[in-house]
Amino acid sequence: MDLIERFLKYVSFETTSYDDTEDFPTNPKIFDLADHIKDELLGLGLSDAEVDQYGYVYAHVPAAPGCEDAPAIGLMAHMDTSSAVSGANIHPRRFRYEGGDIQLNESAAIRVADFPEFGNLVGQELIVTDGTTLLGADDKAGIAEIITAVEYLLAHPEIRHGKLCLCFNPDEEVGRGTEHISTDKFGCEYAYTLDGDQLGGIEYECFNAAGASIKINGVNIHPGSAKNKMKNAVLIGSEFIQMLPPAETPAHTEGYEGFYHVDAFDGIEQEATLGMIIRDHDRKKFEERKNFVERAVHFLNVKYGEGTVELKMSDTYYNMRELVEPHIEIVDRAKEAMRACGVEPRISPIRGGTDGAGLTYMGIPCPNLSTGGGNYHGIMEFCSVDQMRTMVEVIVKLVEVK
């Protein structure tokens, strides 16, 4: 099957993950795609392909003759998509980009003035949305590239490679992608996630991350007689938001700069709820950020009465850099594979999370590689067909035993 035919089939499955449930996977529809991938892998001849009770797909490619002692390399990509925008009824459009703005529909367009990086994509074949949904390149492009590379290797037994371990997982987008992974079933010594953006990206450091849920317990009194009695939960929540440093939000930070991000706020006078995430690459600064949130909540409880503001905060993942660097040869291997395919690698920190962080802390060092997409989690998501095809070549070079 052609790479892009495969990709477009995957994006036809609705696999949105949700952070408002304790179920796993968070969306049972993930099993539809998981079963499809399993059947596809079985059809390629990977007889041990399976879907477990949590929706993880596992399969293995045996080592080529004479390469049985080579390290077992893992390749991983996630099946779920972000809930920020609908992932149902996706209508992709494929075309050769000749420059200029891209009109997605009558009211939505990708404007070069807003996304100057599109200047580097002139002449490439792109796939975009119709402006009503996300595309699903994050991370179905990664899945398609891995499986297409495997198909190529199986068709070319002369290419020497060690054992390849495949895993396709749910719920990466809600930070739970490795929650129920079986490292025994995965079975690799080290791995790579194919979950990056434009071609050339190699990432082996990420944020330290925490999530916080804040409940504000107000007191509602008729506004005509509310003086010195009402505690408006909406206003108290707004006061908390105003205490956060205004320059330390995602819209005002880049590179190694951390942030506070309020991603949900809902309520009435009686009760309000607020959700936020806290991020920093530096572990000390990360702990300081969490402490700041705790102190802000304490201040509001002193001001409005104990129990007015309830905080639940927990760590989500940690920066994997310190555990990957002792195995920097796996990063070097990715660099060499890209250069062999005419791609100049770019090392940069992930301003987000990755299943690789979870795997790394489970004892499987796992950098992240590009897939050829961009503008994830929104209606302006896209992928480059040219870059996806190159990434298939990169994967083949990555696993080749010299």
Can you tell me about this structure?
The protein has 402 residues and is α+β, with helices and mostly antiparallel strands. It is built from ten helices and 18 strands. It has helices spanning 3-11, 30-44, 137-155, 183-186, 233-243, 283-304, 321-324, 329-340, 355-360, 385-399, and strands spanning 50-51, 57-61, 73-78, 93-96, 102-103, 109-110, 125-128, 164-169, 190-194, 201-203, 208-217, 259-267, 271-280, 309-317, 346-347, 368-369, 373-374, 382-384. The strands form four sheets. An eight-stranded mixed beta sheet has the order 1-2-8-3-9-16-10-15. The protein has a four-stranded antiparallel beta sheet with strand order 4-7-18-17. Strand 1 (50-51) and strand 2 form a beta hairpin. The two termini are 28 Å apart. The mean pLDDT is 96.
Please specify the SSE layout and strand pairing.
Blueprint: H1 3-11, H2 30-44, E1 50-51, E2 57-61, E3 73-78, E4 93-96, E5 102-103, E6 109-110, E7 125-128, H3 137-155, E8 164-169, H4 183-186, E9 190-194, E10 201-203, E11 208-217, H5 233-243, E12 259-267, E13 271-280, H6 283-304, E14 309-317, H7 321-324, H8 329-340, E15 346-347, H9 355-360, E16 368-369, E17 373-374, E18 382-384, H10 385-399
Parallel strand pairs: 3-8, 3-9, 9-16, 10-15
Antiparallel strand pairs: 1-2, 2-8, 4-7, 5-6, 7-18, 10-16, 11-13, 11-14, 12-13, 17-18
